[in-house]
Design a protein that fits this description.
Number of domains: 1
Order of helices and strands: EHEEEEHEEHE
Radius of gyration: 14 Å
CATH class: Mainly Beta
Shape: globular
Helix content: 10-25%
CATH architecture: Sandwich
CATH topology: Hypothetical Protein Aq_1857, Chain: A
Strand content: 25-35%
Distance between the termini: 30 Å
């Protein structure tokens, strides 16, 4: 059986920040909205600190923490691999847990090849 292709990964720098947040807050979750106040910056919350809307997509996990994206944003980006990264500075909104550390999560996208797209891990949808 062929291994399924992940839709999501994280850089070492992002993992270091996540480990720091895990020590302080425990279980985490990520949510990337489709715009408005927070733009399309991924937000990190304590698990249960944000409730995905009906039909939002959970595209994978990072350190077993779910990464959800807005249902409309998923339709736009479903052909893309997401790599979670972190940079110095303050992103829009400031609600994300990494903000007090002077960091901001961001996503780097790349398009899947046609072969990858045919063999992706399944997406979980909120109900």
């Amino acid at each position: 059986m062929e291994t399924k292709i992940a839709r999501l990964s994280a850089t070492e720098k992002a993992l270091e920040v996540i480990w720091e947040l895990e020590k302080k807050y425990g279980d985490l979750m990520f949510y990337q909205a489709g715009g408005c106040c927070e733009g399309t910056q991924p937000q990190c919350f304590e698990k249960g600190g944000f409730f995905p809307r009906m039909n939002d997509a959970m595209i994978g996990t990072i350190n077993e923490h779910e990464f959800w994206i807005d249902r409309d944003l998923f339709e736009y980006w479903k052909y893309s691999h997401f790599t979670l990264d972190v940079v110095d500075g303050f992103g829009p909104g400031g609600f994300s847990l990494e903000t007090p550390l002077g960091k901001t999560f961001k996503v780097v996208y790349r398009l899947f090849t046609p072969d990858e797209y045919e063999n992706l891990e399944p997406v979980k949808r909120s109900e």
